[in-house]
Amino acid sequence: MDGGFPIPSCVDLGVQGKVALVTGASSGIGEAVALALAAEGVRIAVAARRTQLLAEVAQRAKEAGAKDARAFSVDLADASSIRAMLGEVESVFGNVEILVANGGGPKPGTYEQLSPQDWDLGYRVTLRAMLDLVDGVLPAMKAKHWGRIVALTSTSVKQPIPNLVLSDAFRTGLVAALKSLAGDVARDGITINAIATGRVATERLRQVYGDDAAMHEAVREVPIGRIATPQEFAPLVAFLCGEPARYITGQTISIDGGLIRGLFG
Q1: How many whole angstroms separate alpha carbon 38 and alpha carbon 48?
Q2: pLDDT at 258 over 80
Q3: 73-78 long-range contacts, CB within 8 A, separation 24+
Q4: Terminus of the chain with fewer CB atoms < 10 Å: N or C?
Q5: What are the phi and psi torsion angles at 51 (to 5°)?
Q6: How far apart are CA 214 and CA 33, in angstroms?
Q7: Residue 244, SS3?
């Protein structure tokens, strides 16, 4: 597996046969999380825009141990596309019991560099799309008195990142909304958590930092001294989706190599 080591499975997560949906799953952290859940025997829907890559991920998920795995096309910038995808997943698998809400980050830039249109699109893909996904799966989770929601966000929710004001604003809003919701639905057997991802080897990192000098500085700032692989995020995300994590909710957990220096990072 990419990343230099297999994803371990030392705890029975108790999710075999459950229906999981992972968005942004065609590459990077979303793909790694989908494969980790597949190893637990879930029935998994992987969703993104790049359907050819998604089909390959679905096949690898079956090989990893998924009871079933299918690819679904979705454009997170389009609310109707999200609704259509959720309907298709339900028609194939039934109600989603595990949601890993993941998507590409918004446009980089400082406040003065961004237009009102940039803010509108950033809101749509970074905040509203994630809430649309939650809205789509929450009623069935409440009816079953069981559900797991994990949102993949950024360390920008704990410490603003220069040149990423849209991420700073909308990801923080997402975490705040989910924190509130987690308390509301905790007694329904639903847990909701977020992951504050640090610097990880994905296409997004190159988009944000650009040239080699900037990339070198990005690495230098991480106490561990390197950029993470997507596979280093997957075990914790999968654990939060399982039965042993039933008492963990409303949390935003950093996986960042020590990048956030605050006491509660």
Answers
A1: 17
A2: yes
A3: 73/47, 73/48, 73/49, 74/23, 74/47, 74/48, 74/49, 75/49, 76/23, 76/24, 76/103, 76/104, 76/124, 76/125, 76/129, 77/121, 77/124, 77/125, 77/129
A4: N
A5: -70, -30
A6: 28
A7: helix
Buried b / exposed e along 120-154 (16+ C-beta atoms within 10 A): ebbbbbbbbbbbbbbebbbebbeeeebbbbbbbbb
- Helices and strands counted in the chain (H then E): 9, 7
Distance CA 200, CA 126 (A): 18
252 alpha carbon, distance to own chain's centre: 12
- What's the token pair of residue 154? 């950024």
Query: Which of these ranges, 9-13, 41-45, 121-125, 165-169, has the smallest mean pLDDT?
Result: 9-13
In sign, the C-alpha dihedral spanning 85, 89, 95, 100 is negative
For residue range 22-41, list pLDDT tens digits in order. Answer: 999 999 999 999 999 999 99
**Each residue of 145-193: pLDDT tens digit?**
999 999 999 999 999 988 899 999 999 999 999 999 999 999 999 999 9
Contacts for 5 with CB less than 8 Å, ≥ 6 apart: 231
**Which residues lie below 8 Å from residue 13, measured CB to CB, with a gap of 6+?**
40, 238, 239, 241, 242, 243, 244
